[in-house]
Every structure is written in C-alpha cells, then in structure tokens.
Amino acid sequence: MNKESFLQNTQEELKGILRPFQQELNNGQRLANCLKLCIRYAERDDFLQIDELLRTKIAENVEQEEALINCKPVFDRLREYAREQVEKYRLQFIENFERLAEEAGLPVEVDFPRFRVLEGIDGEIVFSKRITIINKKTLKSIDPRRIVTAALRVKKQLYDRPFDPQKFIDGLYETYAGISKTDNIAQGNPVPILRFYLEYVISLQSKTFFTNMDKAKFRGYSLEQFGVDIWRYFKAGIGGASNGKKLCLDPGRNYFLWLIDSNGERRQISGISFLEDET
To answer: For residue 279, is pLDDT > 70?
Structure first.
C-alpha cells in the first residue's frame, strides 16, 4: 500500500470512530443546554418559559437519559408549578385586558388566547413567545396596556374615518359594471374578486397619479380596509346601489380574498356581482 492510500484509509477509519462519539457528545450537549435553560428560567421565575420548555421533546429526552434520571421528579414538580402560575397569570391577564379595553371604549371579545375587536380585527396572545398578533402584525409584548393601545390604533385606521355607505356601494357597482363591459360578462354574473380588487383600487387614484405614478401619490387601500368597508356597508342597512342592485359575494376556494360577509364573518370570496333586488 502506498503512502497516499495508507493515509487516506487511516483518515476514513478515524472518521468512522469519531462520528458516533461526536454524535453522542452533541446529543449530550443538547441535553446539557436544556438543563442550563431550565436553571436560568427558574432563577428568573420565568414560569412561562419553564412551561414551554418542559413541553418539548428535548426535555423528554433529558428525563429518559440514564445519567440524568434524577431530573424527572424535579421536572415534574417544575411542570406543576409552572402550570399553576400560567393559569393564574392567564386569569389575571384576561381581567386586566378586559378592564383596560372597557376604560378605553374598545369593544373586545376574549376567547383566550384569541380575541376580537369589532369585525375584521382579530388577535392572538402567544405567551410562550411574548408576542401578540393583531391582524397578522406582531406586537412584541403581552402587556395588556400595550395590546389595547395597538388594537385602538388598528381600530382608528379601519373604523374611525368618514365612511359614506351609499358612495361606497355605488363605487363598487361602477367598478363591477366596467369590468363586465370590458370582459363581456353578462350583468348579474360574478367577476373574479382579484381582478375586481385591483380595478377598484385603481379607481380610487387621483387623476394626477396617472400623469405621474410616483409611489408617494399612490392611495393605498388595504385588503383589511376593503373587508371592513364591505361590513360597514352591510351593517348600514341602506339596501343596494343607487340603481337598486344588491351586492353579492360569491364564496370559493380558488383565487379568493378573505372578506367579511353580511353576518360579520370572514369568508373566502372568489367572485363579486350585483343582482336585481327581488324583494
């Protein structure tokens, strides 16, 4: 065997010996890191993180490791302690959250960990990550006061602005009629909601925008706002457009948008049309 082959074979043999040993070391390090985290959280009395950590697979592996068998009774006591503290915190959180929301004049329905502030404003408290999600936007806090402030901000954006339901529905009908004419779609038949949303947003732009399409001149109109405006129209109970035709939202699973129906529920809407009032 020449020198090159000898050295190559030696390397492969040593790698074969090292590999399982290194894997065992890595596994041991992961278990040790889990224990260190648990100690750190216990020092801080961070029962939320303790509760989350002791639900993981790595914590289960620690308990099953022969060299760490004494961890199981300790983990069991910590689990019970964390569970009790989390429950107390949850009840206190809901009480504080509802009180602060009432003081701020914010209508809120809590179904922990989720909550709703009017139709179209939904939130979720993720205790383990110390975040709150409101309409898919993340607030890095689970402080009830900050959550109420953030929810008020969203309410102001979506609800606390002038809204003329008749002007709104007439604008929707104009967009619908325009698409129907361009695409040769018979009146009363649905047009695709994605196409409609695009054309409607374009209809909201000023004339100067089309002569200089600078983004600073663009008037944004979020899907959230669109859904809430449709709900505000339904809630106003004014009937249909000025020509008497009624808005109809067609559900569907393909090429849809999440909008709010006449019952205030989010629905997958794939088409929109205007029908003759048959009442």
So the answer is: no
For position 212, what pLDDT does the model report? Answer: 83
Torsion of CA 41, 46, 47, 52, to 10 degrees: -60
What's the one-letter identity of residue 62? V
Task: Give buried/exposed letters for 81-102 (b at 16+ CB in 10 A, else e).
Answer: ebeebbeeeeeebbeebbebbe
Question: Would you list the DSSP string of 51-82?
Answer: HHHTTSHHHHHHHH-GGGTTHHHHHHHHHHHH
* The pLDDT of residue 1 is above 70: no
CA dihedral 232, 238, 239, 242 (to 10 degrees): -110
What Å distances lie between residue 40 and 43, 77, 120, 126, 129, CA to CA? Answer: 5, 16, 40, 21, 16
CB within 8 A of 239, min separation 6: which ones? 246, 277
**Model confidence, pTM:** 0.73
Q: Which phi and psi (to 5°) does residue 267 adopt?
A: -140, 150
Residue 110's region, left for phi above 0, alpha for psi from -120 to 50, else beta, is beta
CA separation for the pair 8, 176 (Å, rounded): 74
Element containing residue 259 per DSSP (H, E): strand 257-260
